C-alpha cells in the first residue's frame, strides 16, 4: 500500500470497470471503518471534495471521529478542544463546505467528514466544490451520505459516547468482497 492520493483514492486495482451509483467510479471514493462503537462497525464510503482541501498522507489506524457542536460547524465550536488532532463529523447546511472545512482546520482537526443533512439520503453523493471566496483549506474534506452520518450520530447518542473510533483511509481492494462490511442500509 502506498500512501497519498494514488495509493488511497485510486482504488481501481480489483474493480477497474466498477461504476457506482450516479456515475462515480470506485476511485472517486475514500473509505473509512468505524471500529467503535461495535453496532456500527462497518466500512463507510465517502467522496473527497472536488477542488479544495488536502489529501490523506497518513493512514490513521485509530483516530477519533468527533461530532461537531454545533453540528453545522459554521462558526466557533463548543467542543473544538476535542476536535484538535482528530477528525470532525459535521452536517451539511448553514454555510459552504469550504467554510466548514476551514472551521475544523482552525480548531486543529486533521480532516472533516461532512454528512448530508437529508437523513434519508442513502445513495446520492454531493460534489463538494469551492465557494468562490478564493479561500483555501489544507485538511482533507469528505462527503458522507446523510443516512450514514445519522446512523453514526444515533449510535454515539445511544451509547452516550462523545466520539467514534475509526480507521481512515481503508484500502478496500485488499479486502475480499465477502468480508467488506458495508452498512446494511446503504447496500446497492
From TrEMBL:
Which key words are in the record?
A: Glycoprotein, Hydrolase, Protease, Secreted, Signal
Entry's localization field: Secreted
Domain of life per record:
Eukaryota
Stretches of the chain forming a coiled coil according to its record? none
Q: Which GO terms describe its cellular component?
A: extracellular region
* Keyword hit for Transmembrane helix: no
Asked if the record carries the keyword Lipid metabolism, the reply is: no
One annotated GO molecular function: peptidase activity
Taken from the record, one Pfam family name reads: PA
Please list the residue ranges annotated as the PA domain: 65-149
Subcellular location, principal:
secreted
Q: Enumerate the Gene Ontology biological process terms.
A: proteolysis
> How far does the signal peptide extend, from start to end residue?
1-20
What is the role of this chain? Plays a role in the modulation of physical activity and adiposity.
The entry's protein name is: Protease-associated domain-containing protein 1
Q: Which organism is it from?
A: Trichechus manatus latirostris
- What lineage is on file? Eukaryota, Metazoa, Chordata, Craniata, Vertebrata
